[in-house]
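Deliverable D5.2: sample structural annotation.
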Amino acid sequence: MLRKTSSPTFELFDDDTERRGFAFFKDRTLAEISGYFPSDFWERLVPLAAFHEPALKHASIALASLHERFEKGDRSILKSNKDIAEGGFALQQYNKAIRCLITPRGGNQKPALDTSLVACVLFACFETLRGHHGSALSHIHSGTQILTQMNDREREHGGDDNHQQMCVPLETLVVLFTRLDHQKVQVSSHVGAGARPENIYTNFIRACYQLLGTRPMLLAQGKPNAHPGFNPDIPVVFKSLEEARNSLDYQWTLYLQKAVNFHYLSHLREGTESQEHRDANVDRSHFRAIFEKWMTAYQGFLDRNVASMNSKSLQGAMVVKIHAKFAAMHLELGTFQMLHDPMCWDKSLSVFEDLVDLAAAVIDAQNAADEKRLQKPVFQLDHSIIGPLFTVSHKCRDPYLRRKAISMLYSAPRQEGVWDSILTARVCERIMNLEEEGLGEVKTAADVPEWRRIIDIQVAFDLEARRGEIKFLRLHSDARQSVIDVFEW
């Protein structure tokens, strides 16, 4: 375990380059990566852990090296397997971190649980920045598997495995990996035959209920969590933005678990009414009621506190509202309809408008608060606006809203976890062109007929070759037609 009271008696850094890298990590990377919300994990616990654990120190320095170049718009970080610029230094630090995990200090056979989980987070951030999204997802998956297996053991045998001795509290790691797991279940990490995983941004954004073999991390039902709101109870009015956000993440994770269980509904013939289908609708009604209660509690919090919020808190409040509206839209449409009826999204035009307006407000507020932000891309671990803007760009066929969402993805470069806004925009623009090609002037969503609409996509990017491949499905004569499209930029 990481020891809270220990103090190193050795020189922490091997040279000035490491010392400078760790200083950048503390001063810049930690402030950026936590996004719009205060984070004890990033602000206090990670620096403390990195100070005591060599593996986390080297992982932090490796991440800082790439982050500094990312902010400068240095695209050579995507080629960091080659010893060019500082890519060699970042990889050296990354490899040192891995070696320290393989051979822990003090002759221990394996690293402490919290060390391994924090390393998974830092490694995922590192791989994301250099464009290795499949590897990043693998690290996230490793962390969620560790926590899920630990949960299973505790349910079977009881006890807490001395978690109270951990430097990074287990409750903090559970909340963090629950959010990361939302990204994992949205982005499939399958790589096409013959593809090189390190160069490919694969199987772009498929809804959780479309992912066979992937499930959200199981929450420990009834187990208390020290983080306010991360439990089944919803108050009349939330006391803090953190409580509201945690509550939304908790309830959404429960819903995702149910949605994955209902995945097999996609194999039912359209119009088939089964007991499973009826049960799914009953469950959806249950979650709609929960989310309506959540919205009431959140609006009460905003009414009492929005006037006194600073700029960063206001941005966070808008992000939470975006995710709440996104969740409510999915609940309203329902899994069965979204899988079988590509026209159903036209019912959500007002929600799409709200998502675009709120995302624009987040970008404007962030730029206004930091004038230098106009020259620097955003890097944060949590997903905030890219995923919802992808849904608008992909599922909303209104030509104005669709183009506005794509334009925002292009004009405000940002990396949110495994989401890359520029790559997302390229995919969405290509999908839009494929759907509208040959239709003449598209004035409304109704001008894009059902048979032209793409219902499912898988995307592979070769970043160095600046080439992408989209495999998509369309409904054609009551059958699903698979088509592969290749594009370059």
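Annotation notes: Residues 275-305 form the longest helix (31 residues). The radius of gyration is 23 Å.
The annotation will be released with the project's public dataset once the embargo ends.
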